[in-house]
Design a protein that fits this description.
This protein has 232 residues and is α/β, with parallel strands linked by helices. The protein is 34% helix and 15% strand. A hairpin with a 4-residue loop joins strand 5 (184-189) and strand 6 (194-201).
């Protein structure tokens, strides 16, 4: 099955102002975020991508814009299933104001029980994101084969919840995962299990290019017990 590169959007104006943006419209990349996005094509230059998928929010679309400009033939698809969590009445509020809310402790310590007033639960967020990725995996494999690599630009909580799913972790542990703005997290999906091969990588990503036949790399289906994807 395909390899998915999960890109968190670059640093946004909400990140720098301490706002819980959620789905608030008009949240753009700040100057540093734009520079991070501009560096993404170079970081991915050696990786043959077959498609780009984005959250509908502006900051994700802006993050992928330089990559799409560098690869004119790369198709872009917008996917509602990887939209930011719907924080409801919390959207647009200062994070400092939310610290003392009783719900914040639940979000941090027991997120599977957390539901945002006027918004969605964190379980719903994870379930829709996982469903979207599974559907895209099947579509990419059907159209481009099992060795295909594609990129998906989304949000911190979405990516962390997808990592938790890939690792078989309960959602209550997902706050232990950290993904920085414009970092790349790579998950290689197989018929039996996903493999997390990068987490929050902010450097060069050339080693994620599929290995050619005869390169000496051991296919995952032949990996010995105790080895597996990414073992050294």
């Amino acid at each position: 099955m395909p390899t998915l590169l999960l890109v968190r959007h670059g640093r946004s104006t909400a990140n720098t102002s301490g706002i819980l943006a959620g789905r608030t419209p008009g949240v753009a990349l700040d100057e540093r975020g734009a520079a991070q996005a501009a560096a993404l094509p170079g970081r991915l230059a050696a990786v043959p991508l077959v498609a780009a998928v984005s959250s509908p929010l502006q900051r994700c679309q802006e993050t992928l814009a330089p990559l799409l400009a560098a690869r004119p033939g790369l198709p872009l698809h917008t996917e509602d299933g990887i939209n930011e969590c719907d924080y409801g009445d919390w959207s647009g509020r200062k994070l400092a104001e939310l610290t003392d809310e009783p719900l914040m402790q639940t979000v941090q310590q027991h997120p599977s029980a957390a539901g945002f007033p006027g918004g969605e639960t964190m379980r719903t967020m994870q379930n829709r994101a996982v469903d979207a990725v599974r559907a895209w995996n099947a579509r990419i494999e059907d159209e481009h084969g099992p060795e295909a690599v594609y990129v998906m630009c989304s949000h911190g909580d979405i990516i962390k919840s997808l990592v938790a799913d890939a690792l078989g972790m309960h959602l209550d542990l997902f706050q232990r995962v950290s993904v920085e703005p414009c970092s790349v997290t790579a998950v290689r999906y197989t018929p039996l299990r996903p493999y997390l091969i990068r987490l929050g990588d902010t450097g060069d990503l050339g080693s994620l290019a599929p290995k050619e036949e005869g390169s000496g790399a051991v296919p995952e289906r032949d990996a010995a017990i105790g080895g597996g994807a990414g073992a050294s």
